[in-house]
Amino acid sequence: MSSVWFILLLPLFGFLVLSVGSPLPKRAVAVLGPGVVGVAFTAAIVMFFWDYGRHGVTRDAVAYTWIVSGHFVVNFGALIDPLATVMCLIVTGVGFLILLYSVGYMSEDVDFRRFFCYMDLFVFAMLVLVLSDSYLFLLVGWAGVGLTSYLLIGFWYERPAAVAAARQALVVNVIGDWGMMVALFILFLHFHTLQYVPIFKHVPAVLGYDGSTVRIVTLLLLVGAVAKSAQLPLHVWLPNAMEGPTPVSALIHAATMVTAGVYLIARSYPLFHSAPFTQSVVIIIGTCGAFFAATCALANNDIKRVLAYSTMSQIAYMFVGVGAASYASGIFHLTTHAYFKACLFMGAGAVMHALHDNVDIRRMGGLKATMPVTFWCFLIATMAISGVPLLSGFFSKDEIVGSVYLQAQHVGWLWIIWIMLALTAGLTALYMFRLLFMVFLGQERDPELALHAHDPPLVMRLPMMILAVLAVIGGYLAFPGAPNWIGNWLRHSFERFSPVAPAEPATQWASVIIVILTVALGIFAAYRIYYQRRPAPEQVGATAPAIYRLFLNRWYVDGLYDRAVVRPIIVLGLFLSTVVERFVINGLVEGSAAALRDSSRDMRRVQSGYVRNYALSILLGAVLVVGYYVFRR
User: Fold this and answer.
1) What is the mean pLDDT of the chain?
2) Domain ranges for the chain
3) Which of 37, 323, 343, 615 is the most exposed place for a label (fewest CB within 10 A)?
4) pLDDT above 90: percentage of residues in the chain
5) Distances, alpha carbon 25 to alpha carbons 28, 31, 32, in Å
6) Window from 124-133, 307-316, 550-559 with minimum mean pLDDT
7) CA 562: distance to chain centroid?
């Protein structure tokens, strides 16, 4: 059996054993839950080296034929190419480290087994999404990650906030699923198949270049991507999803769900490459989302929600990358982001674990002395996400910003995009170092809370340290001036169907220098305000209270949704239940029943049982019929 089927089936096996098998000891669950994903990661490494030895030759491994009807055939298979191998390594590799971390984090939870059951199913659904060779089974995986995210966000179902967050995530993602399904119906009407290869080969011939149909299809696909990756305007579920356990947040943000939208656009690049209008929309959504999320993170005081908004901002950078046809750059940033974002969430989980689940950074401070390993891992990941030179985030983010800088020299409006991306890079450094200074440095703001703070056990520290190392070295997959290994590898996927190779720019040093200066300014501002407190954060907020309230209230987007969508739906629901259902629907049903009952009662009087009455009725009827024909003349 090909290693790809081991990659798929091992997490499914773990889910089945943990869900329907006989009760297992906690130690067995702790081995099986992460173990199946770890073995799947080994199989992914084998698959990668097999493909690398064959220079990224694409192959379609068909497991079985599901439907055969004339010329219509539906196979369940896996499309194995460089993009799929990279995604498999991220999902299984980072996923394994997160599940290993979970062994320590969830050790005291009474539903330890159920947690790993859901997590294995989550990994399996994401693998179906990235490995499928057709949009049909991509949609199956797409729905699967939506379902499992609902189960995991609401894992602590006794908490009303967790249940509400899970329900919100499900509803918003169903909106994206609707866009996906409509797009797939249109593709099927034109291509009579949902397999990738036949569609991608004939996109220009069937849909044309920048025609109305390809625009509609790609915009509908974009609806699905925006919902799944929590981008504007369907981002509202992501911050509230922090109600789930911290390892769930790490898995959703680093290796699975929110990366699915970026993968969808990258996988569908022949469609998006034929729709430049949609590519421009992707760039605009990504740029606005990156800036918006950075400002929200800057004013938030919940350690996990700050990281949630940082995820939204970094995913938005990836949207800009794939929207600018720099597909390999977008996937490269997805890869490095998986390292440092998983490390950041693990660090946040370690802090919460030590501080009795407190998430308010205003009560933290001075944790470096008691949690040194967590501090150094968090510092490295913070530097990486901020774009400090020579760390992974610097290289991957620079490729995206540099791509926009290069294209702006030919397309004027992209200068606005480049300026906003550079500004957002500075804001990222500002809010991330704000988080670092407030949590780990300075004086203890709540000595009683921090009294028993300590580094987590080895099973939690080890994954953090591995990811911190990857956050340092991961960027050298595309070191400037050296062979761009990841770009050259992914090019096998992104040049197969497009007649024009997507632009992968050389390093744009003017852009790099300006972004580095912006990042340095952000770090310096965070140091002065949140470490030296000159000026103090309160003074900064007081100088521009309206802007501070705007950021603190997340640009009032949630309130706008509440007034424009939620409340009208509630009012409509009350009207339908109290008026339409009560007086119209119930009135029709009960009125019909009453009319039938009354008419039956009247008809019953005619049925007297006397033959002479029936004969008289027949006679009268005959007289009326004869009289009608006689007098009609």
Assistant:
1) 90
2) 1-180+219-268, 327-552, 559-632
3) 615
4) 67
5) 5, 10, 11
6) 550-559
7) 22
pTM: 0.91
**Closest listed residue to residue 319, CA positions, set 292, 295, 296, 287:** 287
CA angle in degrees (0–180, nearest 5) for 167-172-174: 95
Does the CA dihedral 169-175-178-184 come out positive or negative?
negative
Q: What's 476's DSSP letter? A: G
- Give 490's Cβ-side CA count (13 Å radius): 29
Determine contact, residues 420/291, Cβ cutoff 8 Å: yes
pLDDT band at 509 (very low <50, low <70, confident <90, very high): confident
Residue 490, both tokens: 């992914």
Length of the chain, please? 633
Q: Where are the beta strands (DSSP E) in 273-367?
A: none
- Structure letter (DSSP) for residue 531: I
* Helix, strand, coil percentages for the chain (3-state, nearest 5): 75, 5, 20
What DSSP string runs through 203-269?
HHHHH-SS-HHHHHHHHHHHHHHHHHTT-TTS-THHHHGGGS-HHHHHHHHHTSGGGHHHHHHHHTH
Tokens linked to 275: 């729709």
List pLDDT tens digits, range 489-508. 888 888 877 654 444 455 68
Peptide bond into 535 cis (omega under 30): yes
**Does residue 78 contact residue 128 with C-beta atoms inside 8 Å?**
no
Strand partners, 68: 73
Find all residues with CB under 8 Å of 402, minimum gap 6, and list them: 505, 507, 508, 511, 512
Burial-class residue 602 by CB neighbours within 10 Å (0-12, 13-18, 19+): exposed
Cβ–Cβ contacts within 10 Å for residue 139, how many? 20
The mean per-residue pLDDT over the stretch 604-621 comes to 77
SS3 for 14-58 is HHHHHHHCCCCCHHHHHHHHHHHHHHHHHHHHHHHHHHHHCCCCC
For residues 473-478, give the mean pLDDT.
Answer: 84
More confident residue, 619 or 7: 7
Burial class (CB in 10 A: 0-12, 13-18, 19+), 246: buried
CA distance 574 to 570: 6
Check residues 1 and 486 and name the one with the higher pLDDT. Answer: 486
Six token digits for residue 129: 């999404």
261/381 Cα distance (integer angstroms) = 23
Single-letter residue type at 331: I
User: Which band of pLDDT confidence, cut at 50, 70 and 90, is reported for residue 71?
Assistant: confident
